[in-house]
Amino acid sequence: MKAQKSIFLFILAIVAIIWTASAKEITPNAKIKTAFEKKFSNTRNVVWEKGTDGDFLASFDTEDGEVEAAFAKDGSWLYTKTEIWHETLPEVIQEYLEEEYADAMIMSTMTYEDPATTLEYILTLSIEEELEVEEEDWEQEVPEPTYLKLTFDEQGEFLSEETIDS
Question: Which helix or strand (DSSP H or E) is residue 95 part of?
Fold first, then answer.
C-alpha cells in the first residue's frame, strides 16, 4: 500500500511538472489590457489565450456567467460570448421554446455581442427523432439527434434557425 502511494505521488509530481512547463501565460499588450479593463470591470479569474487569427481571448467569470471576450492586437473589442443558464432567458424566448420545441433538450445558452450587432441570445438544442420499434426488429439502429442553433434578438424575437453538424 505504501509503495502504491509513493508511485501515485511520483506520477502526480511528474504530471504537475509537465503541466507547469507547458503552460505559457499569455500577457496581452497595454492597449488590450486598457480596453479590457474599460469594458469589463469586476472580473475575476481572467485567463488570456492567443486566438488563431492573432487576436487575444480573455476568459473570466462574472455574476452573469462564464465569459469569453476577444480583442484585436490594436486593442479593439471584437466580440463577447457569455454562457448563461436557460432559466434566465427572457420569458418570450422560454414561451417560444415551449410552443415550438417542447421535446427538445437545451444543450447550451449564451449571449453574443459584437460592435456590429446588439445583444443576441444563441441556443443549441438537441432534437431526437421518435423511434418506433417493431417487436421483430429489436436491433434497429438508433438515429443520431439533430442539433439546432437558434438565434433571438435582445427583445426575444426569433431571428434564425440553423442545423449544426454533429
Answer: helix 91-100
* Spatial separation of the C-alpha atoms in residues 103 and 97, rounded to whole Å: 9
Q: Please state whether beta strands 44-50 and 117-127 pair in parallel, antiparallel, or not at all (unpaired).
A: unpaired
The residue to which cell 444563441 is assigned: 122
| 30 contacts: CB under 8 Å, gap ≥ 6 | none
Chain segment 86-129, per-residue pLDDT in tens: 999 999 999 999 999 998 999 999 999 999 988 999 999 998 87
Residue with cell 486566438: 51
DSSP 3-state of 49: strand
Nearest to 29 by CA among 65, 71, 80: 71
Q: Grid coordinates standing for 115?
A: 460592435
